[in-house]
Amino acid sequence: MYKIGDIEIDSKVYLAPMAGVTSLAYRKFMKQFGVGVSVTEMVSDCGLIYDNKLTMTYIKTDKVDRPVGIQLFGFDENNIVKAMKIVEETNPDFDFFDINLGCPVHKVTSTGAGSALLKDLSHLRDYMALICKSTTKPVTAKIRLGWDSDSINFKETIKVLEEAGVKAIGLHVRTTKQMYSGKANYEIARNLRDEMSVPLIVSGDIFTLDDAINAIDITHADAVMIARGGVGNPGLIRQIDEYYKTGKKTLGTPLNENIKYLLEYLDLLIEEKGEYTAIKILRGIAPKFLSGYENMKPIKNKISQTINTKQDLLNILKDEHLI
Ligand SMILES: Cc1cc2nc3c(=O)[nH]c(=O)nc-3n(C[C@H](O)[C@H](O)[C@H](O)COP(=O)(O)O)c2cc1C
């Protein structure tokens, strides 16, 4: 359907990077629903350079989650290039690099990394040109509309990135100042893909199949990123993928099936992170698998507030006759 460099992608679903969520276990779990491309959570260039143990776990991939990109962030392009070499040497089993130019978190932007790089496009041109020419892998970038509503510059940014040699661009249709609040603004990017020479993947508030159709219809993007809308609702990916392959709108996932998915993800996460850390993460994520179904609120609260082990979760589901 579209290409990132020479990599052919056959689904309109791009699994968005999410720090603390899109680990290898999550990417493997979500792949089966029709993900075309996955990407790691953002990885610090300095974390790789200093051989930080936790950072090194973020770049692990598997044949199941491919094609997969490694997303890097950092303010100094020379450090990014060093980090790219480290990735290529320690884990050559990945498909492209993605550069984070959209992170709004102060800890990141105050160093000049993430979306702070959108503030000075002549600097960004040099930064991205060096990065693109330092690897034989395709390089992509993820941006926002601009820093704030007075400095919307995504069209200029896209030109700079295309000239620097990026092979696809992810656009989160919010400004940095908006962080993750306010409504995603697709109208501002109407017909955007028609003006571009590389694939466009759009991101922001894709919670339903109709949200995805709307985002693609307005922007003519090659794909949509599934971020918060996919957490606990992997069936959304199947609905979008099937719609674009068959033209059919299928129903969402029944509760009993979604609970089966939760248990599958639970086991993958425990295998990856150990039970203690996996359950800590699942206190936030497991309730989302029960969202959108009737009368689940008390059970969701119980899960998020009380589980310490896999057995605790199983006991709650059993007591509620959900398994
Ligand atoms: C918890 C969380 C972590 C995120 N981490 C990253 C990240 O590491 N890299 C990145 O480019 N975007 C990151 N994002 C942004 C998402 O990829 C996506 O663009 C954004 O959430 C908008 O999509 P949504 O409104 O459908 O959630 C993150 C978003 C969330 C909610």
Task: Please tell me about this protein's structure.
41% of the residues lie in helices and 13% in strands. The protein is built from 13 helices and 11 strands. The chain has helices spanning 24-31, 45-49, 53-58, 77-90, 106-109, 121-133, 154-164, 209-219, 235-246, 255-273, 275-285, 297-306, 310-319; strands at residues 2-4, 7-9, 13-15, 37-39, 43-44, 68-73, 96-100, 139-144, 169-172, 200-203, 223-226. The strands form 2 sheets. The chain has an 8-stranded parallel barrel with strand order 3-4-6-7-8-9-10-11, surrounded by 5 helices. β6, α4 and β7 (96-100) form a beta-alpha-beta unit. α4 packs parallel to α6 and α6 (121-133) packs parallel to α7. The longest helix is centred in the last third of the chain and has 19 residues, at 255-273. The N and C termini lie far apart (39 Å). It binds flavin mononucleotide. Residues 16-21, 41-42, 71, 100, 102-103, 142, 172, 180, 184, 203-206, 225, 227-229 line the site of flavin mononucleotide (FMN).
Summary, kept brief:
This protein is α/β, with parallel strands linked by helices and 323 residues long. It has 13 helices and eleven strands. The model has no long low-confidence stretch (mean pLDDT 97).
